[in-house]
Design goal:
This protein is mainly α. It has one domain. It is built from seven helices and no strands. Helix 1 packs antiparallel against helix 2. The longest helix is centred in the middle third of the chain and has 37 residues. It starts with a helix and ends with a helix.
């Protein structure tokens, strides 16, 4: 089995970085949820906060890497324009044009890629916001339930944006792979 350069970049974008972000979400969610002074000793709280800071920044970095590679490396290949008078299966090398050429697949571009182009950017922005607040307010985070809940909500919205983008990306790549 061999992969082209484009397929390698696509695998790095979705299968490696995107999946790592989505999987790391479970650890971050559990860490934020369990960050309570009454459940853990003072030394345990210190260690938990340190892990939360490292974990949230790592997740933000994964999200940024995923979105930047998707936007600036893969997306130009997706939007490549076919030569004039290219139709049917000849469009397979031009994913956007191929999807838009049929009413059955046009929705994958119109909804899926629009989500990936715009809404997916919320994932790294919100993940960075959570990492910043965890770093800046680490002591208050232990005792302020409202702050923890707010971060959990931001964290979940970030996950939701990334998960839906990953869903669309997987199906778009199945319908019209970048070759």
């Amino acid at each position: 089995m061999s992969l082209t350069v484009k397929e390698l970049w696509t695998a790095l974008h979705g299968l490696i970085l995107g999946t790592a972000f989505l999987l790391a979400f479970a650890g971050g969610l559990a860490g934020l949820w369990n960050l309570r002074p009454e459940w853990i000793t003072a030394d345990g709280n210190k260690a938990s906060l340190r892990r939360m800071m490292i974990g949230t920044w790592a997740m933000a970095a994964l999200a940024w890497a995923t979105v930047v590679i998707g936007t600036y490396v893969i997306y130009p290949w997706y939007r490549a324009q076919p030569p004039a008078n290219t139709t049917g299966l000849q469009l397979l090398g031009y994913p956007r044009s191929y999807l838009l050429s049929s009413g059955r697949t046009a929705g994958w571009h119109q909804l899926g890629m629009e989500w990936k182009e715009h809404v997916a950017w919320f994932a790294p922005i919100l993940a960075t916001a959570v990492a910043f607040v965890v770093t800046r307010q680490r002591r208050e985070l232990l005792y302020d339930g409202k702050l923890r809940r707010m971060l959990l909500i931001l964290f979940c919205v970030s996950f939701f944006c990334a998960a839906i983008a990953g869903f669309f990306g997987a199906f778009i790549n199945k319908a019209a792979p970048i070759r």
